[in-house]
Specification:
4-stranded antiparallel beta sheet, Neuraminidase, 1 helix, single chain, mainly beta
Length: about 290
């Protein structure tokens, strides 16, 4: 049983946290920078432009702060997540062709991973690239029919620097977003409709020490989705009610509530921290003027 002193302390601490979150949330500037899409995903800042995908429209767009969204890749094989390889070439997790692909300078595409142990991948969803060039990606069966699931599991994979495909975890129900800690010693992966984020230690051979990093209470119509990490280790997660931010210790800092289906987020460090968020038919820019 709590004594009165401890109870009062907990109440005051809780109120202080709520006040801090409210003050922070009120300071954010939220702008719609592109709209009229069907389902946006994969925000990626590259060459002073935001790249993003519209999965049903089979298109990857670029948006410039001085202009509007322009078609960059069509057809995109219903690309979802986007990333950059060690040579700053765009990588795509493609639903339709069920592969990880690289966009070449001449506009052609090169398949980097299509199958595991002779069985086709499900529908690669999101991907990140390590400093050594290794590509980590999630492969839930969101975009295929049950009878087309050859693997029989949803995996977290790594394409190592030699091009070999390595299975890191086959024990998540629907792995979705993933991100590295700033020093890349920790890999974060969320299990979408378990609403849980796992952390792994990154090793030379793969990952180890899987543990729960954070979890949402309750159940929702939408799962956890794309994630991004800031320089100070703050983890931003697209989720059922908007964008959630966590400390490197897994403590929830705040929820930036957004309408519709918040699918992904990427962090851009400027004078103020900026989040680019894909939010169903819209792409948003959220300027965090109180982010520490």
């Amino acid at each position: 049983m709590l004594n009165r002193l401890n109870y009062n302390y907990l109440v005051q601490a809780s109120l202080a946290v709520l006040a801090l979150v409210a003050a922070s949330a009120q300071s954010h500037e939220i702008e719609t920078i592109s709209e009229g899409h069907t389902f946006t995903e994969g925000p990626l800042w590259h060459n002073d432009q935001l790249w993003f995908s519209d999965i049903p429209n089979n298109t990857v767009y670029t948006w410039s702060p001085t202009g509007t969204a322009e078609v960059a890749i069509h057809p995109s094989s219903k690309a979802n997540g986007l990333a950059l390889d060690s040579q700053q070439r765009v990588l795509m997790a493609q639903h339709f062709s069920r592969r990880i692909a690289r966009l070449n300078e001449d506009g052609t595409q090169t398949a980097l991973a299509t199958s595991y142990q002779g069985k086709r991948l499900n529908s690669p969803n999101d991907l990140i690239v390590a400093n050594d060039g290794s590509i980590y990606f999630t492969d839930p069966p969101f975009a295929i029919e049950e009878e087309d699931n050859e693997l029989g599991f949803a995996g977290v994979f790594k394409i190592n620097s030699g091009g070999d495909l390595v299975l890191l975890d086959d024990d998540l129900a629907l792995p979705n977003g993933l991100a590295f800690s700033p020093d890349q010693s920790t890999l974060y992966v969320n299990d979408a409709y378990q609403w849980v984020i796992y952390a792994y230690d990154v090793t030379t051979s793969g990952v180890s020490n899987k543990r729960v990093f954070a979890k949402l209470d309750g159940t929702y119509d939408q799962g956890m989705d794309g994630m991004s990490v800031a320089r100070d280790g703050t983890l931003y997660v697209a989720g059922p009610e908007g964008v959630y931010s966590y400390t490197p210790n897994g403590e929830l800092i705040e929820l930036i509530e957004l309408p519709n289906f918040t699918s992904n987020v990427t962090v851009l460090e400027t004078d103020d921290r900026v989040l680019y968020v894909t939010n169903q038919s819209e792409v948003l820019r959220i300027t965090l003027t109180a982010n520490h």
